[in-house]
């Protein structure tokens, strides 16, 4: 692939994150300012906003129609925009520490009731107790404006593809990044509480049986993403030096099991800020495609087939205004590479190849530091990871991940409540 870190658009460098003036609605009166929080947005819209002479940047919904509050100057800036620039790919919210001043004591009180083996248990009842109380903690301590935004994220088509919440306090003592780090961290589950609690506000957190293994804890709900020396060249979440190209996780599993949203929690950011989660927003990609390729990939399926797997899908689905893409990373370990795995008519395969190549040219990068959460809507964006230089000294990049959808697997009888582990494969 032709994409490297140099092509990654850094949201941080283009759009400095503004400090918020968020208030915890339950404890403090809101907003001294008309706008309850500042956002950093990865779009020209943000340039327009920040370039005004307003003394503060207003909270802005992702579309003109959804502006939560907007000064007159903002309104003027927004009306000058072309429609296609309306919705940013990423909206960032920074939580000020003072609004979470009592969180730690509340967490200690609640977590004292959790089972001692929470990090490693696969007992559904124990996991549900954790999910329920993490949900309550997150709702109690996040500002109401943020809770409302999270509740809209999966359901409102005008919400952005990605939401970043920065500044959450996590575990004070962290073990070195590396094997079994989550087990070594057990007894203190603050990051998992935020990740699962926020995920539960967005929808239903769940996992696939496929993900069982040593890097998964909390009843498989939380997956640890970090690199190890033996995987340095691996094209996967476990590698570091190679690009993990744009893809959509588990699009092949069907609607009830599809991870609609991926939640990432930053435990340690890459110290050089090279290791980022990449995303390509679907509407931006769609607009760059040849209409003939769109037509072909909406009507002809691609089959991905290897020695132990085979599945087919239309590469492009969804509406014109909210198109969906089914993009696979054919270079994952054991998959076999594009030429060996992708099957279909020569025209459709060539069109799919063009989609992947174009997707790689419009990536945006999100660096996650300690206590930063990224929610990524897989119906609105594909994702990947930029290459970075790991040192394997215990201080490399470490993220946690969970999957979120609306719990259709229970209604479909695929698993019984309260199990959150669905049978794939
Ligand atoms: Fe992925």
From TrEMBL:
Record-linked SUPFAM superfamilies: Clavaminate synthase-like
Top-rank taxon: Eukaryota
Record keywords: Oxidoreductase
Keyword Oxidoreductase: yes
A molecular function GO annotation: oxidoreductase activity
Descriptive protein name: TauD/TfdA-like domain-containing protein
């Amino acid at each position: 692939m032709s994409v490297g870190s140099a092509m990654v658009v850094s949201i941080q460098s283009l759009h400095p994150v503004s400090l918020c003036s968020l208030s915890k609605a339950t404890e403090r009166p809101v907003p001294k300012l008309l706008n309850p929080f500042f956002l950093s947005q990865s779009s020209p819209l943000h340039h327009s906003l920040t370039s005004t002479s307003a003394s503060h940047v207003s909270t802005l919904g992702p579309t003109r129609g959804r502006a939560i509050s907007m000064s007159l100057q903002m309104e003027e800036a927004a009306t000058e925009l072309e429609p296609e620039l309306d919705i940013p790919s990423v909206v960032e919210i920074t939580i000020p520490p003072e609004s979470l001043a009592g969180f730690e004591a509340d967490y200690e009180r609640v977590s004292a009731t959790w089972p001692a083996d929470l990090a490693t248990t696969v007992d559904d009842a124990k996991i549900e107790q954790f999910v329920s109380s993490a949900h309550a903690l997150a709702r109690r301590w996040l500002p109401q404006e943020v809770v409302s935004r999270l509740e809209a994220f999966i359901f409102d088509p005008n919400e952005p593809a990605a939401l970043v919440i920065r500044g959450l306090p996590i575990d004070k003592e962290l073990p070195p990044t590396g094997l079994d780090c989550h087990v070594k961290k057990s007894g203190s589950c603050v990051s998992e509480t935020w990740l699962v609690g926020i995920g539960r506000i967005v929808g239903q957190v769940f996992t696939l049986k496929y993900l069982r293994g040593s890097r998964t804890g909390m009843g498989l709900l939380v997956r640890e993403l970090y690199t190890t020396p033996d995987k340095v060249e691996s094209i996967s979440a476990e590698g570091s030096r190679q690009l993990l190209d744009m893809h959509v996780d588990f699009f092949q599993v069907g609607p009830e099991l599809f991870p609609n949203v991926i939640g990432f929690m930053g435990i340690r950011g890459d110290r050089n800020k090279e290791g980022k989660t990449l995303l390509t927003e679907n509407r931006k990609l769609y607009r760059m495609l040849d209409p003939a390729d769109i037509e072909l990939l909406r009507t002809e399926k691609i089959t991905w087939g290897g020695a132990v797997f085979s599945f087919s899908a239309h590469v492009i689905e969804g509406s014109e205004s909210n198109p969906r893409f089914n993009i696979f990373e054919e270079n994952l370990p054991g998959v076999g590479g594009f030429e060996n795995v992708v099957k279909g008519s020569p025209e459709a395969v060539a069109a799919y190849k063009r989609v992947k190549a174009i997707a790689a040219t419009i990536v945006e990068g999100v660096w996650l530091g300690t206590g930063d959460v990224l929610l990524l809507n897989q119906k609105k964006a594909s994702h990947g990871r930029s290459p970075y230089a790991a040192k394997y000294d215990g201080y490399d990049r470490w993220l946690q991940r969970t999957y979120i959808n609306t719990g259709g697997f229970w209604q479909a009888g695929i698993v019984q409540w309260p199990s959150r582990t669905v049978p794939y494969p």
